[in-house]
Amino acid sequence: NGLFKFSLTDDNIQIFKTQADKYIKKNGLYTGTLLKNGCFLLGTDYAGVVILDRSGKLKRVLNKSTGLQSETVNNVYIDQEGVLWIMLNKGFSRVDLNTPVAFFGEKNGLFVLVTTIISFENKIYVGTIQGLYRLDMENELQANKEANYYFEKVHGIYDGCMELSAINNKLYAGVRTGIYEVKDLESHQISEQSDS
User: Fold this and answer.
1) Beta strand 123-128 with 73-78: parallel, antiparallel or unpaired?
2) Starting at the edge strand that comes first in sequence, how are the strands of the sheet with 123-128 ordered?
3) Nearest Cα residue to 82 out of 50, 48, 37
4) CA within 13 Å, CB half, 152
5) Separation of alpha carbons 65 and 156, rounded Å
6) Structural element, H or E, at residue 6
């Protein structure tokens, strides 16, 4: 039924609402631990590990798309160096939580050369030689989708996207054919490339 908070001072139990509630309910919660930074690390039955901050905001998901060989988590352990050891149905995985490095590639929808990247309005936009793509991790979990971190194509940009810039709370893409303003998964051209 989700997560709960228990108060030691008055023996009060309250529902703990998080950005991953639907995801956890769908995929089961099996194990968990509290990290030194106060975040909650939760191992699921079918979908890897979810990391939430103390307010319930989603910080990270570790699953097959981020390198786990299995998504059934039997136990988790944090060693003295802060390294996470995840016991799985098929072996175990080691994750350095102090290094926010993750690999994104073909399994995430990126099949061509990546040229530029920007984080804008809690989404990641990636320019490639064949257009612009967007990753909305938070929306995937809110919509009760599997957290596969799949980049979606931004409509209207089909040529090489060489530069991304956020100016006055708007996102712009520098493409071989001109400059485009980007809003979510849509774009419209605001200037054409000149031949001079």
Assistant:
1) unpaired
2) 114-120, 123-128, 131-135, 152-153
3) 37
4) 11
5) 27
6) strand 3-7
The number of CA neighbours under 13 Å toward the Cβ of 150 is 10
Token pair of 48, please? 């890897």
Alpha helices (H) along the chain? 21-27, 137-142
pTM summary value: 0.59
Q: Rounded to 5 degrees, what are φ and ψ at 106?
A: -55, -40
Closest CA to 43 of 62, 64, 22: 62
Structure tokens at 35: 């990290």
Contact 46, 53 (CB under 8 A): no
The phi, psi pair for 34, rounded to 5°, reads -100, 130
**Per-residue pLDDT tens for 115-174?**
888 888 888 899 999 999 998 866 665 554 555 678 899 999 999 999 999 999 999 999
Share of the chain above pLDDT 70, in %: 89
End-to-end CA distance of the chain: 63
Q: Which two tokens stand for residue 168?
A: 């006055």
Q: How long a stretch of residues is the chain? A: 196
Cα–Cα distance measured from residue 73 to residue 75, given in angstroms and rounded to the nearest whole number: 6
- Dig out the tokens for 41 from the structure: 């690390």
